[in-house]
């Protein structure tokens, strides 16, 4: 799948992931329904889902981590269960487990702390991680400083300006 031309390690590719899971789960336009935010405020968990708000909040350290797809999938599946089955099912019950496993992720309720190897001191990262995101196709790229000259290659190639929105990975 074309993720817009950035090196795969740098592109977060979240809309593509959500789109493919939505297809597998029978949920139309999953990327449009879920807003993903990165937060430094999560302490005891790597992710959180508030289905009524269509909001998934992820630990900011996940932005550069191999664990990102699994945690996003975990949370997005909570949303899908809520959408498909309502409030009835248990949070990590069989409905949730089936969705997660259907798209090839382990249905783990908890990710062991030693696997989350991105616990870089907050003071180091707070001023240093900037998410550059294409408002058109959602392609994103991280840097330790804002790089306003970066352009979304996919957009540029199709004749658009390709400017990217830049924001720090933290909540005010
Ligand atoms: Zn959960
Ligand atoms: Zn773009």
Tell me what you see in this structure.
This protein has 172 residues and is of the alpha+beta class. It is 31% helix and 15% strand. It has one domain: Zincin-like (2-Layer Sandwich). It is built from six helices and six strands; from the N terminus they run H-H-E-E-E-H-H-H-E-E-H-E. Helix 1 packs parallel to helix 3 and helix 3 crosses helix 4. The protein is globular and about 50 Å long. The termini are far apart. The N terminus is likely disordered. The structure holds zinc ion (ZN) (2 copies). The site of one zinc ion has 9 residues, from helix 6. One zinc ion binds next to helix 3.
Helix content: 25-40%
Distinct ligands:
zinc ion
Number of strands: 6
Q: Architecture, according to CATH?
A: 2-Layer Sandwich
CATH homologous superfamily assignment: Metalloproteases ("zincins"), catalytic domain
The low-confidence parts are: 1-10, 120-127
- The CA-CA distance between the termini, in Å, is 34 Å
Rg from Cα: 16 Å
Report the top-level CATH class: Alpha Beta
Following the backbone from N to C, one meets helices and strands in this order, namely: HHEEEHHHEEHE
CATH topology: Zincin-like
DSSP strand (E) fraction? 15-25%
Number of domains: 1
